[in-house]
Structures
1.
Amino acid sequence: MPGTSLTYRALLRTASVLAPLGGLFDQKLARTVGLRRGVGDRLAAWGRASRDPARPLAWFHAPSVGEGLQAKAVIDEFRQRHPEWQLAYTYFSPSAESFAAGVGADVADCLPFDTPTDSAQALDALDPSLLVFAKLDVWPELATQAARIGVPVALVAATVRPGSGRLGLVARALLKPGYEALTIAGAISADDAERLARLGVARERIRVTGDPRCDSVLARAARARSADPVLAPGSAALVAGSTWPADEEVLLAAFVTVLARRPDARLILAPHEPTPDAIELILRTAGRLGAPSPRLLGEATARTPLVVVDRLGVLATLYGAGTLAYVGGGFGRAGLHSVLEPAAWGLPVIVGPHWQESRDAGRLISGGAAVSAGTVEALATAWLNWLQDEPARAAAGARALGVVEAERGASARSAALLDEVL
């Protein structure tokens, strides 16, 4: 099994050295570096104290919360099939720290830097019988080292956007050893399978299994319907999830227009990163545009017209309080966030103009369950149209739910895929 190139190793070593310096100017990067400080020793300590050599261990890795939802659906299926296995779970983004704690793994921590020394230390500590990456976050050093010592390496819920930077010539050359190391891969669609092959995965090792996140969001919505007190629906509420400042500027301006026609309209605004600075910017923008005075989620009532969500982990539940939804990312270039969560609640969805890289948004739009709005006026019009035409809104919501239901069972198919290599 070929290993990573000297160029890749040099780049990763340089990045691991420079990252702490970058953290002086970027809080998120500082958190990323801080989480990795001592992670190898933490995993080694867990291995000495809790690793049962008589039991096999499956190591699942997902970079952030969205991919974690896909991985968790597969983990739940895998655990049902193999209750005797131990499970390890790692993540990359600091935003996934609290999510990882709730996955139910025997050990959960951030992924060490993908250097030869750190990868070898983690493999030695966990002694996995299976290594599973989620979506596309295959780390070449870890993957090639695992394959070299005989550990099957799998990829589930594989998604490769048509414009993914990984498809570029330089990135493909650097990352190719990791994809070549895969024993098996489950792609969410035939198009993703084709792009996965371009990255270096052997075609005979690729299966189309669907998107496990569909099972995850359906399950979360079903649990929340009967259990969560925050779901007392308010009239005419639009829940805007995972928004960025570019989305918020347009949303708040459109909200002012909507309120002039529908004084009962409500906006529940959940920024993607609800930091104090992000919340403060929303408050200032609302004041500048003449929107109602925002209230934070913990202070809001069922009659509060503008609610700002100031914590993570509640968005999938909050969609249950909505009449319709807006999903953020479409007015910037960071990428559209998941439209499946509101769709699982049977809500019609509005997105910004930059949605073309999202397979799920395309399916909703083509199925009449979502619309794209590129201006304040277009967003306000779509918002009002669905508020005022209840039968049309209900029909669009039913179509949205149907899109998610169509891929129910993907997590079971993904777990069965892993069984092929055990």
Note: The chain has 18 helices and 14 strands.
2.
Amino acid sequence: MANDKKILIAGAGPVGIVTGLYLARNGLDVTLFDMAPKPPEDHRAATLQPSTLDLFEELGLTESILEQGFKSRHFQWRDRVKDEIVAEFDYGRLAEVSAHPYVIQLEQHKTVYTALDAASRCPNLVLHRPAEVTAVRQGPDWVECDVRHDNGESATYRGDYLVGCDGGRSIVRKSIDVSFDGFTWPERFNIVSTPIDLGKIHGFKLRNYCSHPDRWVSLMQVPGEDRKGVWRCVFPAKPEESDEEVMSDEWIDARFRECMSAGPYPIVHRNMYNVHQRVAGRFRCGRIVLAGDAAHVNNPIGGMGMNSGFQDGITLARKLIEIANGGNAETLLDRFDRQRRLTAIEYVQAQSIANKRLLEEKDPAVRSDRLSELRKIQDDPARHLDFVKRASLISMWEKSEHIE
């Protein structure tokens, strides 16, 4: 294999480090830059889909992920208005198409640390942090990025290709003047975590979506630092509610009382943020390519954002390896753009928007029809399988691989 290609990666979050690890394991020289001194340990993405677990096998990451995370085979849709379970979906039906017919619930930073540990054993992978990419340029046969290091000094790095994995506010994307088309939802989300065992008290599965026209909630259990379990709840905040109000103990307590029962529910974490649905106008500009949140962002209902980003990164890594072995760069990178941009719109954007709208539907008749449709899907084996293939992003991967 030719290994004279040098790949620069802006961002060493989950997508950046997995992409870099894949490239380094296959003989390419990789240099990553991340502006944070260490991986953020706040409550971010925590769902690893079956499609991701299958892809991680090639990198030797899956076994460690399974040891650390909580395995969840089922997830429920509930109706808070009638206080009933509408439908329960079973990832076990994926056994014929996935070696891992279940979800693993694991905090994002633990997945990142697992990949970082594997990357530390690759001598051809170098990670600079804290180091902020401030600008990028490219020529006919090179790319460059300017990087500001933590000592205040700046340096310029040159490579053959640059991958932008630097998040929704991507400097790489902005430097190549690529649009980020879409919208921002009017309400904010407040992620609240409690150690109280909501599953034991209320019979929740490890993943649940509870619909309500005004106060829906999405909740899941993650291991927490002691593996005793922490329940992470996503509550929507109305546009007219102030940030101070939404972050208060009183507001959070009211949400728990509405959705479950009287507490107390001790809070170990709270974080409010704006929610976006956006896709880059293109994922490739010359020798610069976008992946993960730099290419597409979506609301978190369904656990699709990070997982689709892993598919971006591994698809791109395979293309760059093929280029290093003599493949046509224009053909391969143009195909990457078609594969990942089209499926981001068709699967991640469409499904995450549909999930949110189903949770919050206000029209009683429409709401009833949509929930009834979920019951029909649950009861039809073929539709049930198709539903969980789409939810797990296996359908997205299959579609992407067939795009020429």
Note: The radius of gyration is 21 Å.
3.
Amino acid sequence: MGVLVDGKMDMSKKASHILGCIKRSVASRSREVILPLYSALVRPHLESCVQLWSSQHKKDMELLEWVQRRAIKMVRCIEHLSSEEKLRELGLFSLEKRRLWGNLIVVFQYLKGAYKKDGEYLFSKACCDGTRGNGFKLREGRFRMNIRKKFFILRVVKHWNGLLREAVGAPSLETFKARLDRALSNPV
């Protein structure tokens, strides 16, 4: 895959150091300055290889979210808002939603044939035609060991099956992304 993984998995530490450099070296705290710097320099470290490792430990996920909260606190004129309102005002998702967004895009690409040679039968479609809502439902596998429930294939099936038919039936990736943005921005 071209990914190097070490035992430390210290993405939050690296991202936090970069954020500290931005805070010390940039005088402006406007949205137009901080948001592009965060998106280009910090967020890639927070989202590095999330489909591969996708932390299941609450402590690790909270560390990553803490770095993002630190970044959005730097933006002036929105200090009075809560963290969720700040994210909405800046047009950002929480990192948990970003991970889900990325996972669902990978599923869409796979089902549209983008990864045929990488895994012939990665997902199995639900056999019954009487599904309500989403007509492209996937079947959840059953495993005896709980550790398998954290695998990518099982993590995304419930979320995929919860999407509306208009999203999963999108003709192109761009259309799917736009519809997915709308679906994830509305609290369900």
Note: Residues 95-111 form the longest helix (17 residues).
